[in-house]
Write a structure and sequence with these properties.
about 220 residues; alpha+beta; GMP Synthetase, Chain A, domain 3; 2 domains; five-stranded antiparallel sheet; SH3 type barrels
Amino acid sequence: MRTTSPFEDRLLALIEPAAADLGYEIVRIRVMGARRKTLQIMAETPDGRMNSGDCEKLSRGLSPLLDAEDPMTGEYYLEVSSPGIDRPLTRLQDFERWAGWQAKLELDRLVEGRKRWTGVLAGIEDDNVCLDVEGEEDTALIPFAWIATAKLVLTDELIRESLSRRGASEAELDALEQALEDGTAELAAPEDAGADTDADTTDIDSDDTAARGKGD
């Protein structure tokens, strides 16, 4: 799930060791776009944190490697982002780390007549994801290899938990609590990146972020 094609597999093999040396884990890689491509790298620290400064650090750290190896032809954007709050779950460890939280799963095959499953994550067992599904007495065991995509379901409780895990102060959490109660909390959701995603976009014409694009 971290990749969707052999080309992305090769990019992951190239980038992952360098990211690890910088202190980051790769959550997902995607190559998007037709005329001008975007290489999107989602990453986080081993404890699940990733702020805008981390995105900048990883972007700067990977750029020399990508320039030297030149794995992508033509012009492209390099976008480094956090997984966001309603994050994709791409590794077996993600399902264990986020046990107790609601998630949506889409499988690559029919199981009991359906591919889409929603439930509360209940950890892992061997290479299976444990999922408590509403109305079902027994916990479902879903082979990790059968999961095509998975992500957390965005809720007020998940927002609070995610910000707490990122190290938000009590004052910030109290302010969020009040905003949620007042209905004034707003979360921007970048395309295919999850709500409230920190990102560093590498391109000469980028408005608010560092400019280190290829082909400009």
